[in-house]
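Chapter review: from sequence to fold.
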Amino acid sequence: MMQMVLMFAPLLILAYFIMIRPARKQEQLRQQMITNMKKNDKVLTSSGIYGNVISVSDKEDEVVIRVDDNARLRVIKSSIARNITQEEALKQPKEIKPSGA
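The token string follows.
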């Protein structure tokens, strides 16, 4: 019996590092993206709709996005799949200030 436990323990540890830990990290990054969402961010909803954030409600779990000139959608925060504005900001290399002279 002890041999079976010793045999399966490394498999459970490996499964943790391959599956559970990355999923937790990804969920943490998603929650950070949702909390850092602000007005005028370009977002993509989970249903594939692009829009610009008009308002983010602190009291309720909803965001109003502008899809077209006269079309606005009120969606829950968890339906935002990507914040394109934040992704583009992360892709741009940081400027290096010249030192001296």
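Two observations follow directly from the output. The CA atoms of residues 62 and 76 lie 4 Å apart. The first helix runs from residue 2 to 35.
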